[in-house]
Amino acid sequence: MTMTSDGSGTNLLKSWVVGANEADASFPLNNLPCGVFSPGAAGPKSDERGRRCGVAIGEQVLDIAAVERDGLLEGLPSPLFDQPAWNRLMSLEPSVWASFRERLMALLAEGSTECERVEPHLHALSDVRLHLPFVICEFTDFYAGRHHATNVGTMFRGAENALPPNWLHIPIGYNGRASSVVVSGTDVRRPWGQLKSPDHELPAFMPSRRFDLELEMGAVVGTASDGPVSVDAAEAMIFGYILLNDWSARDIQAWEYQPLGPFQAKASATTIGPWIVTALALEPFRVRLPPREVPLLAYLQGDRHGPYDIELEVSLAPEGVAATTIARTNHRELYYSAAQQLAHHASSGCPMRTGDLLGSGTISGPRKSERGSLLELSWGGKEPLTLDGGESRTFLEDGDTLTLHARARGNGYTIGFGECRGTLLPALDMPYDTLEN
Amino acid sequence: MTMTSDGSGTNLLKSWVVGANEADASFPLNNLPCGVFSPGAAGPKSDERGRRCGVAIGEQVLDIAAVERDGLLEGLPSPLFDQPAWNRLMSLEPSVWASFRERLMALLAEGSTECERVEPHLHALSDVRLHLPFVICEFTDFYAGRHHATNVGTMFRGAENALPPNWLHIPIGYNGRASSVVVSGTDVRRPWGQLKSPDHELPAFMPSRRFDLELEMGAVVGTASDGPVSVDAAEAMIFGYILLNDWSARDIQAWEYQPLGPFQAKASATTIGPWIVTALALEPFRVRLPPREVPLLAYLQGDRHGPYDIELEVSLAPEGVAATTIARTNHRELYYSAAQQLAHHASSGCPMRTGDLLGSGTISGPRKSERGSLLELSWGGKEPLTLDGGESRTFLEDGDTLTLHARARGNGYTIGFGECRGTLLPALDMPYDTLEN
């Protein structure tokens, strides 16, 4: 396994597509992230008909469904792309993922003999609409950021008991709600929920007042499994990674989460980015996990896994105001890799399926400016954050737009993830047409 | 709404199908539960080809796919049954469910003029294999049995703090794992997991030693929703009910569940019965919820919901030994109805989808013989249960077969749910082919 932290050993792979060879382009030939698009940026969101799989290159997206129909993917099983989702390719063996990537590289590399056949299938990214890139089977959210867990634990239980006793032994996670996963650009509605203030005796049903973001990275399960898998086997099952914002209602969670965990606090929406960056594209950026404080049990050990050196940032823009970057952190801060999370997930015999989405947990760094949630940035609301325009925030306000970005920096090239954006709409006046009682 | 507790007001509806009119038959014309079958009881489980939707009547199952192809379902949208799952019908409006039921009743009622066209589509239940009756979208498990929550809370936190502070206000639930849901008759493997005994400093990875059942009823969501729904609207979304055994590893749960809830403890398997009994068939058995100790918030109130008078029982048979009924209880013990659970589930805006499965939570009655889990029956393992054959149990032993049954008793007829059965296989010697470390 390549253990480099700066993409060294891999240089920019040049493409004939205009704009793909710039050092700061998000989508060079090295990247080839997987999305779903429909031509016409202003098209209706609900129009399924025009959707098809695409791969971003330069400032364009290559219509992979058309490329397949045109016979340009010879040597691969077919059809893989007659549906607007990457699940069919994802469900196959990693060797097929590699063949697909090699084939695309051959088509798009500088000097390719197929330029003339490929070029008609390129669309300008500015002219398309992006959709959920895969059918999300089930969604699991983990809690693998040590600084995040420590910060939250300190606020709620004090510094001595910050990390739960199991945290250094188990990649703690809970099952989330796949139906609530939306793609970047989808507005999110402030939820109503059952809340209880410490100074009230009884709970009330009202709009959340402590609505927050969680800066995460999602791992996308490709190959399925039917029983326990080792960490190395789990690593091979992961098709790629995607930006993820797990919107969280802290006040709903505080009242509901004992004894069975977060439920409606996390069910309004989880926004993911439009592009799955494949594990193959990220391999040069693999780094070692932070040192273990206690030895891990054998079922959580492996040889070929770990997080990546991916810079992450999140910005907040109040309505009509320029965005302020509120946190910068790095994927390498994770204490558990996605492969460890997946191996733990399957350890009871739980079948894992193509399209399962595993949230990393909030990724915070050791410094205050590296905290991936407003809960941490405002220290539970006690230390309001001042934005560039002068406004301050403890939790999100209506109209706020959050945008997550990620990039891995190689030798003369960048691997981008696109953007993961969502605007918070005000709560409904009353969420029910009629309440009979 | 009919508020009867004994099915009065509805009498046996007579059918021309042999065996359907006996007072203790599980599948009279009043019932018409929905399943999926394949002809040939010994057929391979993985053979998808022969599967088709069926409705149980007497000791037979009516091939609904064939009935539809034969043009006997005129007036209904079509095709509804070209796939081996009930999801398409379930996704439609309740008025279509009612039309479908009326049409089947007309075909199967004594005096029907269609006997000769229908009869060729009947198969003996003893000659078919039963499969999962619907595609499970997502699975949520609730905690709505007050006696169960009190028992468990007393064991873990003492009698004074038995019920968590939120329990009387919120239908507490957590997201489970749909991929682990299996149909009655599927063997279940004792899981490995990360455990920590109170007398050990460090956890170990080993087979669960406190593996248990949970006697539950599942509610099957039919019509989908995209935002909050009132309790009455939620009630209308529920297509039917099914037996459910939520296998639970108590020792895995004890170590993992703080702070984010049960995860691998509940992920090995959840067994459901083969028959969805429709809400329409159960309507005569509706009962009122137990009295509220504290008033519920308006979003959890409704006019047309509540549990049913359904007798439940579970038996345990050690390998090669006759079964002992270990608990008898009733669906009416639930403190929250499925409609309240569904309304709470959607309250944050969480989209609910056709095929979502909502486990009720373990249903225990007030008496010791009415406890729906071994955790409660053996009081945490301290009071072993003696079986009829002389063996004793605290938790499950390898080779044990658990069978759940349910029935609602009307005037001269019974609504049965079939059986929900699973045999516990021993843990694998080592769940991994190779562990590199």
3D structure, described in words:
Two copies of one chain form a homodimer. Chain A has 437 residues and is an alpha+beta fold. Chain A has two domains: 34-131, Roll (SH3 type barrels), CATH 2.30.30.230; 139-425, Fumarylacetoacetase-like, C-terminal domain (Fumarylacetoacetate hydrolase, domain 2, Alpha-Beta Complex), CATH 3.90.850.10. Chain A has ten helices and 25 strands. In chain A, the strands form six sheets. In chain A, strands 6, 7, 8, 13, 14, 16, 17 and 20 form an eight-stranded mixed β-sheet that branches. The longest helix of chain A is centred in the first third of the chain and has 15 residues, at 94-108. The radius of gyration of chain A is 22 Å and the shape is globular. At the A-B interface, strand 7, strand 10 and helix 7 of A face strand 7, strand 10 and helix 7 of B.
Distance between the termini of chain A: 62 Å
Question: Can you identify the CATH superfamily of the largest domain in chain A?
Answer: Fumarylacetoacetase-like, C-terminal domain
Largest interface, with counts of residues having CB < 8 Å to the other chain, equals:
A-B, 73 and 72 residues
Number of helices of chain A: 10
What gyration radius of chain A follows from the Cα positions, in whole Å? Answer: 22 Å
Structural class by secondary-structure content of chain A: alpha+beta
DSSP strand tally of chain A: 25
Keywords:
SH3 type barrels, homodimer, 2 domains, six-stranded mixed sheet, Fumarylacetoacetate hydrolase, domain 2, 437 residues, 24% strand, eight-stranded mixed sheet
